[in-house]
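Have a close read of the entry that follows and walk me through the local backbone shapes. See right below:
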Amino acid sequence: MSKKADKKDKGGKRKGEQKPVAEVSARLKRRDYEQELEKLHVELVKLQQWVVHAGLKVCVVFEGRDGAGKGGTIKAITERVSPRIFRVVALPSPTEREKSQMYLQRYVPHFPAAGEVVIFDRSWYNRAGVERVMGFCTPDQTKRFLNSITLFEKAMVDSGIILIKYWLEVSPEEQTRRLKGRIDDGRKIWKLSPMDLKSYSRWYDYSRARDDMFKASDSGFAPWYVVRSDDKRRAQLNLISHLLSCVPYEELPREKIELPQRQKRGSYKDSDYAFKYVKERY
């Protein structure tokens, strides 16, 4: 019995199959990236001022595999805004006390109050991802989490929180390239933990976990947004642009700012104290 041939497009790809980033477009040049990022930073500052003015509560969740670019994207978002308004939450492993609590309990104290944007670098979805794959929770615990998470997030949204969830999708080839790049780079070696090495070998276990997570928690009031992140620069620009579109904001009027006149020296005399200056090595 002959099998039907797979339907392919003109480029020889099966329909529905994602093309590698390199085939879609050339990687974005640094100069072009920085020019666009500067414009987005200006808008993020406007958003920040509006969040404070209107008392908005914004919660942004970042999930994705190791090496997907979560940290770099969060850094790009927060580079030019106030850390008192844009707070980043990256919780360590739970303590013994926290393990005895209701699972979601440790995350609630970090939720935004009025005038705050809270960014979770990994979140309560650890239970549906790394904890499930690495055996840190039982299948029953994962099932109960997936059955209840939409009710939890509905309560968040009903309380006035603007909840935005991002999954950064990286290809296996690009993930390998990035993780290998951390091995011999003294600036990045801290990013490569024993857990990263263990999880690297379980690509399809994570794929199954992601698929189940999406099916259970991709709701109308708190949908998942997937960002292709093989090209980090494009991913960051696309995500920030999308984030700005998810939070209604207006540019507040600003008064013209002029520096006041500096006081005159008067009776002040330069100090003869022996200041300990840092050695100028550069």
